[in-house]
Amino acid sequence: MFMLDTNAFNCALDSGIDPKALSSRGPLYVTHVQLNELQKTKKPVGRLDQLLSVFGSVEQESIPTSAAIWDVSEYGAAEYGSAGGAYDAMLARLDQLNGGKRGNARDILIAVTALKHRYTLVTEDKDLKAVFLEFGGSAESFTELTRDAR
Fold first, then answer.
1. Dist CA 37 CA 106 (whole Å)
2. Environment class of residue 10 by beta-carbon count within 10 Å: exposed (0-12), middle (13-18) or buried (19+)?
3. What is d(CA 128, CA 117) in angstroms, rounded to the nearest whole number?
């Protein structure tokens, strides 16, 4: 079972892989965060529509995040709390690695949810992947997920 980071949808679009083929290795999961991030894309006109089309074509199940963060989490799509402190610890570590990038809170919501459910996190973000592995998760890149789909 795999949790797709938002950048997996960009990779799917850019690689030309059939989005339906992404689930060939197992079930795929997302949270509201991935869709929210895609909807805020600042890429050229048309890119948003393409990303939303890929998102809609991927066979996936949306699950609540395992933590809730003010001004990020959606009511009814997040579990209350900080995942037993894992959210705060993972965010602090990611901030340390990448200098506190603006999207870290959202990235950690995705990661802590994958960690709680024991899903493999699929991400191209090297710092996020390092934090996820450090906290006992399993992660791979988009290329690794799709190696048999090419």
1. 8
2. buried
3. 17
Please say whether the beta carbons of 27 and 63 come within 8 A: no
- Provide the whole-model pTM: 0.92
Over residues 1-49, the pLDDT tens digits come to: 999 999 999 999 999 999 888 999 999 999 999 999 999 888 777 899 9
> Secondary structure of the chain in the HEC alphabet?
CEEECHHHHHHHHHHCCCHHHHHHHCCEEECHHHHHHHHCCCCCCCHHHHHHHHHHHCCCEECCECCCCCCCCCCCCECCCCCCCHHHHHHHHHHHHHCCCCCHHHHHHHHHHHHHHCCEEECCCHHHHHHHHHCCCCEECHHHHCCCCC
CA separation for the pair 37, 130 (Å, rounded): 21
Buried b (16+ CB within 10 A) or exposed e, 95-121: bebbeeeebbbbbbbbbbbbbbeebbb
Domains of the chain by start residue, with CATH: 2-145 (3.40.50.1010)
